[in-house]
Design goal:
- The chain is an alpha+beta fold.
- It contains 6 helices and 10 strands; from the N terminus they run αβαββαβββαββαββα.
- It has 2 domains: about 100 residues, 2-Layer Sandwich (Killer Toxin P4, Chain A); about 110 residues, 2-Layer Sandwich (Killer Toxin P4, Chain A), CATH 3.30.430.
- The strands form 2 sheets. The protein has a 5-stranded antiparallel β-sheet with strand order 1-4-5-3-2. Strands 6-9-10-8-7 form a 5-stranded antiparallel β-sheet, covered by helices on one side.
- Helix 4 runs antiparallel to helix 5.
- The longest helix has about 40 residues.
Length: about 290
């Protein structure tokens, strides 16, 4: 009896130690994932065609233009130069970040691209908060630019895999539809789904405004298929593509108020401008 009574406390201690080890491992995986998202920046130099000196000069002008524009807007698409040295480019910042953060992200992305010394006419830089791309061909509105730049996930598994996956699937479907068809042409959406009383899935989807609609939906669906293959069971994951971004987590990571505030400010300006135009027009007609 004494032997058995000694075993029970020992088993409890071992179980507690195993629990602590699991928690430590999970926390380490989470910290490592967050650190990668915060500091990782990728650049893809994908074309085999060499850039001319004129093209490189136009690219430098494009980068300067993007640095300025990113203080004013989260998405911008333009071209600089004349054929055959025209540079087409765009950038997109995450819909919930402030303009100063957007500008800082684009500044880092363009500097990183410049330091990579890419001698070709096609480049793409991606991070968790922004993307920057250029080419000698216009990709505006193209729906086949689903090239995957990067994906990442928390290297641990949820305990309630089946229930989590079911809620995740529904949440991703909802956020995809919101971004593609109901986002007022911003291409940015967030959606939440309850797994249990204490666990919520937070999801974010964003497409470049030029592919809003069916093409946005296809891009996000393709991204989700990648996460299903490589990050199944992970509590958090992200996939970055040329034209869209998809991310989910069971820890909140976005600022809905910032996105909502930006939208409200934009709508206020539009309403105020329309009202001012009406007042001036009425005054001119009367006098």
């Amino acid at each position: 009896m004494m032997a058995n009574s000694n075993i029970i406390p020992l088993l409890r201690t071992l179980i507690f130690i195993c629990f602590l080890c699991t928690q430590i491992s999970s926390n380490n995986s989470r910290d490592s994932y967050n650190d990668r998202l915060e500091h990782s920046l990728s650049f893809r130099c994908s074309s085999l065609k060499n850039a001319s000196i004129s093209f490189q000069n136009n690219l430098n002008l494009l980068i300067s233009d993007f640095t300025l524009k990113s203080t004013q807007t989260r998405f911008y698409n333009t071209s600089i130069g004349v054929s055959p040295d025209t540079v087409y480019g765009y950038y997109m910042c995450r819909g919930d970040i402030t303009l100063p953060l957007c500008n800082n992200c684009i500044l880092n992305a363009t500097q990183f691209a410049t330091k990579s010394s890419c001698q070709h006419v096609d480049g793409n830089s991606q991070s968790e908060k922004c993307t920057f791309s250029y080419s000698d061909q216009s990709v505006y509105g193209l729906s086949d630019k689903y090239a995957t730049s990067a994906f990442d996930y928390v290297e641990t598994n949820v305990s309630n895999h089946i229930q989590f996956s079911q809620v995740l699937s529904t949440t991703i479907t909802n956020v995809t539809n919101e971004a593609a068809f109901q986002s007022s042409k911003t291409g940015f959406a967030t959606e939440e789904g309850s797994v249990t009383r204490d666990e919520t899935i937070y999801s974010m989807a964003q497409c470049t405004p030029d592919i809003i609609g069916v093409n946005c939906s296809k891009c996000l669906q393709f991204g989700y298929s990648i996460l299903q293959k490589w990050a199944d069971g992970a509590p958090g994951a992200i996939v970055l593509m040329d034209k869209c971004v998809l991310r989910y987590d069971n820890v909140s990571f976005y600022d809905v108020q910032s996105s909502l505030g930006n939208c409200l400010r934009t709508n206020f300006i539009r309403v105020y401008s329309s009202l001012l135009f009406f007042v001036i027009s009425s005054y001119l007609l009367l006098y």
